[in-house]
Amino acid sequence: MLEKPTTLLLQKRLFHLKSSNTHTNRAGKFIIHCNSQITKHGRNGNLKEAESIFSRMPQKNVISWTAILTAYYENGHIAKAREMFDKMPQKTTASYNAMITAYTRSKPIMMREASKLFAEMTERNSVSYATMITGLARAGMVDDAEELYLETPLDWRDPVCSNALISGHLKVGRLEDAIRIFEGMVKRDVVSWSSMIDGYCKKEKIDHARELFEKMPERNVVTWTAMIDGHMKMGCYEVGFGLFLRMRNEAFVQVNPMLLTVIFEACGEFGKYKEGIQMHGLVSRVGFQFDVFLGNAVITMYSRFGFVDEARKIFDMMTKKDVVSWNSLIACYVQNDEVEEAYVLFEKTPKKDVISWTTMITGFSSKGKMGKSIELFRMMPKHDDIAWTAVISGFVGNSEYEEAIYWFIEMVRKMVRPNPLTLSTVLSASAGLATLKQGLLIHTIVLKMGMEFDLSTQNSLVSMYTKCGNVADGHQIFMSIKSPNIVSFNTMITGFAQNGFGEEALELFHKMLNEGHKPNQITFLGVLSACTHAGLLEQGWNHFRSMQSLYQIDPGPYHYACMVDLLGRAGFLDDAIDLIHSMPCEPHSGIWGALLGASRMHLRLDVAKLAAQQLLELELDNAAPYAVLSYLYSSAGRKSDSEQLRMAQRLKGVKKSPGCSWIIV
């Protein structure tokens, strides 16, 4: 009799237990659903929706609090995230990790708060260490990151913590330290290898990068992009493009917009029109949309090719455009001498930045319209160093050196700090005026601003001093340059040559070659000028011929002018005429002027007649041919011919330009 009530009681209890479990399961599923919705809305930027769901939840667990905390920091509300963290009824390691992540992704100064929280943690996991090391490395606090890395349990270091530290070392230029961490890793992933390859490439150690690349067990698109971009940046276009083709042939790797952007930029920079068109075709076939980054790269490429219409088509196809898109097309018009079209686009630009304004200022100044450039400058909402430099450069480009110096002084008065380009530009203005007093003033400003070790500024100082005739100080600055580049050598060689120090110029040229620098057209202008001033005919011929034979440099009109001058001064006028006739391009007035000067020096009336005729065809108002021929006629005893020539000069209204000299007051 007692068994039935007992069984019935058990059944009732089981029923209530099942009902309770069902209710708990439903409540649990509802919490999970709400948590996922908070996360989803937070990631999509719908913060109000995330807040609404969180506030209406009848029950919340630690994941709910962590989800809303994450939503706040992902949308830039760090203070709100911390408020939620402090209100949490229960904190777990995951909660601490979330709040630390919020701080590490904010401003570097917030790493102090992250460090405090990390110190408070009673339990840490691999994510805790990885988050802190990543944050410290991103903030540039690499020594602190290394210290924490050494405290990290060995099993938790690889690969995430090690990768973060490698990235930190590479960010501040410590390649050797990055190598040390990489070589000490037990577990490496594709990120480890890719980071090191990118680090080697950025330090221009392309052979080391390639060696590592070939050893990689697995490569992804990031690895290929780093390797291809590294070669492109080093000027090895053929190798870089070859790697791209190899990737397409042998690797199961899908190209992405970043890789395509690298290729388009390289095609534009190296003038590879055919390959650029092929890449554009590939993009169309693969079905890539012209997103902002990719579209901007293609616009820039076509701009460098001079294909304005194609650049405009890409611009019009882009469904999304940023300020870079507008600036790229404005620059395209300016670079291809369509300044008015650029201005029309500029006025339509929805959001202008300093680059938009300075591009137009540069565009109008390139057309000699400095008044319009100044008008735009005054309309700018803010004048930074870039805007001031654009105006100063415009005046220098139009040989208005005094105006350039005036605007530089105004810039300093307005308390705008000049940048190295500003100083280089205004030093060029001082060199153009050959006013050492102004140059010394600017040099003083350079010293006060601590820019005396900036390479471009040093090069400009060398140029200024040598053009003002102060070769000794120019050479002293040149010798102080730690790592002179080709511009440094060219400037000093030219400075020596222009001031009559031919032997010194040639000695420096040989030193440049011994140090492994490759000469360019400007180098040879300086070298040939040095040979001319020093009367070194044989050496001049040897250097002129070596341009093509040794360095694959085609001599230009000014190189021929130097050689004509050199031959003429040495008395080899017939050889000079033969050289002129062998030129692949039409001789300019400077060449005929050099020959005319040599004919006067050596009393060659026949050569003078030829040079004068050619020179007058190019410059009708040039008085030099009349003066030289008149002198030679008189020297030959043909005074009547000399008088007739002077009469013809007067009838045509050709006047000799008066001589002038600078007086510094």
Report on the architecture of this protein:
Residues 1-5 have low confidence and may be disordered. This protein is mainly alpha-helical and 665 residues long. Helix 17 packs antiparallel against helix 18 (308-317), helix 25 packs parallel to helix 27 (455-467) and helix 36 (605-618) runs antiparallel to helix 37. It contains 38 helices and no strands.
List keywords for this structure.
665 residues; disordered N terminus
Helices and strands, with pairings:
Elements: H1 3-43, H2 47-56, H3 62-74, H4 78-87, H5 93-104, H6 111-120, H7 126-138, H8 142-151, H9 154-171, H10 175-183, H11 190-202, H12 206-215, H13 221-233, H14 237-250, H15 257-269, H16 273-286, H17 292-305, H18 308-317, H19 323-335, H20 339-348, H21 354-366, H22 370-379, H23 385-397, H24 401-413, H25 420-433, H26 436-448, H27 455-467, H28 471-480, H29 486-498, H30 502-514, H31 521-534, H32 537-551, H33 557-569, H34 573-581, H35 589-601, H36 605-618, H37 624-635, H38 639-651
Helix pairs in contact: 1-2, 1-3, 2-3, 3-4, 3-5, 4-5, 5-6, 5-7, 6-7, 7-8, 7-9, 8-9, 9-10, 9-11, 10-11, 11-12, 11-13, 12-13, 13-14, 13-15, 15-16, 15-17, 17-18, 17-19, 18-19, 19-20, 19-21, 20-21, 21-22, 21-23, 22-23, 23-24, 23-25, 24-25, 25-26, 25-27, 26-27, 27-28, 27-29, 28-29, ...
- Describe the largest sheet: none
- Radius of gyration (Å): 36 Å
Strand count: 0
Q: Can you tell me the residue ranges where pLDDT is under 50 for at least 5 consecutive residues?
A: 1-5
What is the end-to-end distance? Answer: 131 Å
Which word captures the global form?
A: elongated
Helical content stands at: over 70%
Give the mean pLDDT. 88
Can you count the helices?
38
Beta strand %: under 5%
How would you classify the helix and strand content by structural class? mainly alpha
